[in-house]
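Entry type: protein chain
Record version: 2
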Amino acid sequence: MSSSAERLRIAACPQCGQSTRLDPSNRWRPFCSERCKLIDLGAWFSEQRSLPADDAPDALDPGTTDDRN
């Protein structure tokens, strides 16, 4: 497929909502800029964002061991 025939993929930046390209020419994809990428990373580091978990670490049964160490 030639570059002119390739479909241009555009999406909203997850941080600011600005339209941004989703191809290798955008080094910050899926974000529109380094600033938006760093704001999102900071939200993860400060635990404003997290993945859902079934049990909190404190809710483990005292009789069980954590094999992750």
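Comment: Strands lie at 10-12, 19-21.
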